[in-house]
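Subgroup meeting minutes
Present: P.N., E.W., G.H.
Scribe: E.W.

1. P.N. recapped why we're keeping a running log of single-chain structure predictions: easier to compare across weeks, and new members can see raw inputs and outputs side by side.
2. G.H. added today's entry (500 aa).
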Amino acid sequence: MNETPHTLASARTLWELVTRRAALTPGRPVLLQEDRALTFGDLRVRAERVAAGLYGMGVRPGTVVAWQLPTRVETVLLSLALARLGAVQSPLIPYYRDREAGFALRATEAEFFAVPGVWRGHDHTAMARRLGAPGVFEAYGTLPDGDPSVLPPPPAEGTSVRWIYWTSGTTSDPKGVLHTDRSLIAAGSCLAHALRLTPHDVGSMAFPYAHIAGPDYTVMLLLYGFPAVLSERFALPGALAEYRRHGVTVAGGSTAFYSMFLAEQRRRPGERLLPSLRLLAGGGAPRPPELYHAVVRELGVRLTHGYGMTEAPMITMGDPEDTPENLATTEGRPGEGMEIRIVDGEIRLRGEAVCQGYLDPAQTAAAFDADGFLRTGDLGHLTASGHLVLTGRRKDVIIRKGENISAREIEDLLAAHPAVTDAAVIGLPDPERGELLCAVLEHRPGTARPTLAEIVSFLRAAGLSVHKLPERLEVLAELPRDDTLRKVLKYRLRERFSHS
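Output recorded in log:
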């Protein structure tokens, strides 16, 4: 049979996808990092040897293995080795500390815990010991190794839960999200097909591989047979040299990454930042229309944005061939097999890419409706052409004098102000109004600091209704963000400004 990306997407397991791609293009590179280049053939061989090493340590099909590792070739190999064994793996973001990591280890009852040793000044091994984690081993520069002849057959089906990912847990304990090989392959296929990629592309992973986007992106590489540059710690302009050396054509990750590329381009007027770059793509956070237009205009590339979450890694994705209007104002269309239902303004999901639920059965019962649709907590609507428009989150609706106000609408308008790099609109407690509107702005360097009167005038000129105008303004050098996709942490802003 002649394999294509669409036929490869039918693979029952992630390991089956690895072996089928390795048979097709064994000599093509897949992982590029610093002076290292791993081919698809190498990927299969080395991952199987790591699997044999893990098997010698006692890892068996169904064994729960947690790992907290940065974005490195070794991390990808370890994860695929666990997939080869049919173990249950629980990736943890490298920035998790005692509270989050300890909670995940206890909740999963992990039997092994792979850590990087001392990384970016933090001793992960010492933390693991302090938490009483069993089976601790370091997997930064070296990995377990063994003879693959000792291995049992790889898993034959991909519908068993073998992945436990974690929500951010910014205001409470994180939730353990249950995924299967098939749900991750379905999500990665949606992303890959929507972006219209080719074997000649060169991608990039600028985000933590332990994020749900890690397998998403890996599936994309395996389906289309092209490589990606891995960044252990992405920063600009530092990453540019490696991106240029390998000729990266597709970059991004989330809205914050688009803004980083744009800001760097503005420091180099008249010079093409990355001559090989043709597409920025990502998701995970709102993307203001003005940012889309600025990227296209100033970077000279296309930008496609999508909608996903830990529970459903890829729900919709923009198509590079779509109209500028749709690319600027929507999250694209749902991928094949993804059903979207809007109930009282809330987006609900059903499809193969949706998780199996949570570690806590009570959380699972609360998350799905009677028809098996996942309640996302996000608000939006579908256009006549089938494009999804996000309007905010239920908890992001500000109720002022009984009126529901979407923070997203105001943030999109503020993003167009010349003195604003990014904006977050929050509701603060108020005895008369219920909540008052507070606009928190990330100030663009080199511009005058905006005043509340100026911002109100700007929003009035943009046509914003009077009852949606901010009553308070805070200006920061930088908004607080998480360490994965650089999402703005609004709960920190509420904590900071609620009592000041």
